[in-house]
Amino acid sequence: MATDENAVSESTDQATSDTQAAAENKLTSGLTSEAKSGMEKTAVAQESKDVKEELMKLQEQLKQAENKAAKHWDELLRAKADLENTRKRLQREVENAHKYAVEKFVQDLLPVIDSLERGISAAKEMDTDIKTLKEGAELTFKMFNDCASRFGVEPVYPQGEPFNPQYHQAVSIQETSDYAPDTVIAVMQKGYLLNGRLVRPAMVVVSKTAEQVTDATGHETQKSHAEEVKTDTKA
């Protein structure tokens, strides 16, 4: 009997111990789940906070970029307007330059016109002598040449100079022994330069010698340089 009672007692103690252990395990498991759930919530909350902060940073960067873009666009519009205004101003200046390019020349030419008018008026008077008219004409001619010279106009008068096809145009060729071949022996009309550039060539008569030799067959064998240039010009 004592043995059976001990066995029952031990069985009861074991059952009680198992129950307590199960209860403790259940309690521990519950606590662990709650802890895990709390940690998960904390992690989610931290992640959400980080996302919000990152979003705020991105929104701030976007705002700054939009402000910068708006500023650059405004600067572009201003630059475009300035460029258009400059283009219009330069166009007006070019038009005025073309329209009034000879204004200074005209101003200097007006005294010459006045002098010619006075000369014409003097010529109409019965008591005006030829000498006075000649002096007036010479004075007017000098004024005109001075006016042209101030604007870079230079005469080309190559009397006695070698023929130069760049500045001279041969209108006639004369055989003579008084000048070397291809020499300008007469100027029929002056040429003119404008700031060193030819405006009109001088019309000249050029010398030649007996270089226009006839061979035994009666054919001409040589031409002067001026003749060659004159022939090319006609062609």
Task: Give a brief description.
The protein is α+β, with helices and mostly antiparallel strands.
Question: What labels describe this entry?
Answer:
235 residues; Nucleotide Exchange Factor Grpe, Chain A, domain 2; three-stranded mixed sheet; 4 helices; 64% helix; rod-shaped
Written account of the structure:
The chain has 235 residues and is of the alpha+beta class. The chain has a domain at 153-235: Head domain of nucleotide exchange factor GrpE (Nucleotide Exchange Factor Grpe, Chain A, domain 2, Roll), CATH 2.30.22. The chain has four helices and six strands. It has helices at residues 2-99, 103-123, 130-150, 225-234; strands at 153-156, 168-175, 184-189, 191-194, 197-200, 202-208. Strands 1-4-5 form a three-stranded antiparallel β-sheet. A three-stranded mixed β-sheet has the order 2-6-3, with helices on one face. A hairpin with a 2-residue loop joins strand 4 (191-194) and strand 5 (197-200). The longest helix is centred in the N-terminal third of the chain and has 98 residues, at 2-99.
* Strand arrangement across the biggest beta sheet: 1-4-5
- CATH homologous superfamily assignment of the domain at 153-235: Head domain of nucleotide exchange factor GrpE
CATH topology name of the domain at 153-235, in short, is Nucleotide Exchange Factor Grpe, Chain A, domain 2
Number of helices: 4
Taken as a percent bin, the fraction of beta residues is 5-15%
The CATH architecture name of the domain at 153-235 reads: Roll
CATH class of the domain at 153-235, anyone?
A: Mainly Beta
Helix content: 55-70%
Mean pLDDT: 79
Task: Return residue spans where pLDDT drops below 50 for at least 5 consecutive residues.
Answer: 212-219
Order of helices and strands: HHHEEEEEEH
Helix/strand/pairing category: alpha+beta
Strands, count: 6
For the report, how would you describe the main beta sheet?
A: 3 strands, antiparallel
- Radius of gyration based on Cα positions: 57 Å
Gap between N and C termini:
160 Å
Shape: rod-shaped
